[in-house]
Design brief:
By secondary structure, this protein is mostly helical. The protein folds into 2 domains: about 80 residues, no CATH class; about 100 residues, no CATH class. It is built from 9 helices and no strands. Helix 8 crosses helix 9. The longest helix has 29 residues. It is elongated and about 90 Å long. It is found in: Membrane. Pfam families: PSII.
Length: about 190
Amino acid sequence: GGEGWIVIVDGLEDIIEGHVWLGSICIFGGIWHILTKAFAWAQRALVWSGEAYLSYNIGALSIFDFIGCCFFWFNNTAYPSEFYGPTGPEASQAQTFTFLVRDQHLGTNVGSAQGPTGLDKYLMRSPTGEVIFGGETMRFCQTFKKVIDNFERNKIKKITLRINPCLIKLGMLNLKRQQKKEHISKIHMHTIRG
């Protein structure tokens, strides 16, 4: 040991031992705090009230959450890709494609997709590791919408991808409606000018 950072741990035994070690430190620290009195500098520097205790604890939890995000983003032993989705390196180039093909089942049957299966990591991370649920979701939904819009623009009849026939029919109807609106607006503009 000693080389690298704690996030690169690659053995389940090490992860369990780390939890036992940190848990025992927390238990002994709690006992020590119960049995001893605060030092003079701590009595002067810290606020002593219920709200302050709560805020100190929430601050400590947030630090642990940020550490957990690093594990979640990089470590495949603590958070296997099979259950939590790909790690950062695994998903760097193929994240959107994986979302569309595996999670949305695009190309087989969009209408009966059984919903996201590996979105835990998608929704809880960004390249820097912070928790940003909404932004990632919006980014992926926007990509999915762009794909469907491109299908409509490129004359769906010529597309040979395996997509739900209902989706193709819907796209053709939307395309016909759009063409009809454009035709009516051209006639209307011609009438106004004439």
